[in-house]
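Title: Prediction job returns without error message
Component: structure pipeline
Severity: low
Priority: P3
Assignee: unassigned

Description:
Job completed but the reporter wants confirmation the result is attached to the right record. Sequence as submitted:
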Amino acid sequence: MITASALGSFALIVGLLTLTPGLDTALVLRTAALGHRSCAWGVVLGIQTGTLAWGVFSSLGITAVLTASHLAYAMLRWAGAVYLVWMGSRILVSTLRRRARADLLQDDAAHEPAVDGSFGSGWRRGALTNLLNPKVGAFYMAVLPQFIPAGAPHLTTGILLADIHILLGLLWSGVLISFARAFRGSLRRPSVRRILDRITGTAIAGFGVHLALDD
């Protein structure tokens, strides 16, 4: 049976990982800043669905394929890189189109974000972003076994550990969404939105390029 000390150590590791600004943070903040609360929570739950899936895969040993097979890892890495560069580029292109509009009122009314504001679209985007990132699988494959005691049921214990990560992710995402909603008025100003989208689009596309070039 897993000890309280092991649970605490794992919570500390994934807690620090959750608090580190990255792709998930940028995605949640931008979606919430656009005023799409249901879509933002869709992104959050999509990301956590991916986390749970990686936890299950790692517990069953499936992600060992990613660490043992260079080809399998490379294929998933390139798929994730293409998806992230495509998503980041769409966001950046939308800012250039809005910049070309002379009438700011028309720009604010006519602008449609790169994605719709439904819960389902957010969930798909969050889940794909997580599942197409092989580094998450590699992280779980490297870390999870260290906290599963000998003789303990791997699947049950792995899901328990993944649930801790998910809980921390949900709590932190709630903070991010509340922050974005509190400053939604300022964040939705056309000039501020362009800056936010450029930062987010560059971060997402840059992460995709980094993933593609990473060995």
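Comment from assignee: result matches the submitted record. DSSP finds eleven helices and no strands in the chain.
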